[in-house]
Design goal:
It contains four helices and four strands; from the N terminus they run αβββαβαα. It has helices at about 1-30, 65-75, 85, 95-105, and strands at about 30-40, 45-50, 55-60, 75-80. Helix 1 (about 1-30) packs across helix 2 (about 65-75).
């Protein structure tokens, strides 16, 4: 029983830390929305898009922890990354150069 409580406490601390990071991102970008995606054994990816178009992501050890984190942070969560949500992302020269480099083998 103690092992279960220790795991739960560890998961709770991780969710709280992720929620603080999400809240900081939201504050820095005038608000934020997100999407949680399962990425296999690695856990879950939390994609964040700020009101100003800035974006970023975080990785949680599980989908459950990711869901707890976004709930604690109080952001709007989308089921998928498409449509109006994806259109809010603003990319800059760095991203365009990086994407072009991938296409030409760079």
């Amino acid at each position: 029983m103690a092992d279960t409580q220790q795991v739960d406490a560890r998961a709770e601390r991780k969710a709280a830390r992720l929620a603080r990071e999400i809240s900081a991102f939201s504050k820095a970008h005038g608000g934020a929305e997100g999407q949680v995606a399962h990425i296999g054994e690695r856990g879950a990816r939390i994609v964040l898009v700020g009101e100003d178009g800035g974006w970023g992501d975080l990785v949680a050890p599980s989908t459950e922890i990711a869901q707890q984190a976004v709930e604690k942070a109080g952001i709007t969560v989308h089921e998928s990354f498409d449509g109006e949500f994806a259109a809010k992302v603003r990319t800059g020269p760095y991203e365009w150069k990086r994407m072009a480099g991938i296409q030409v083998g760079g």
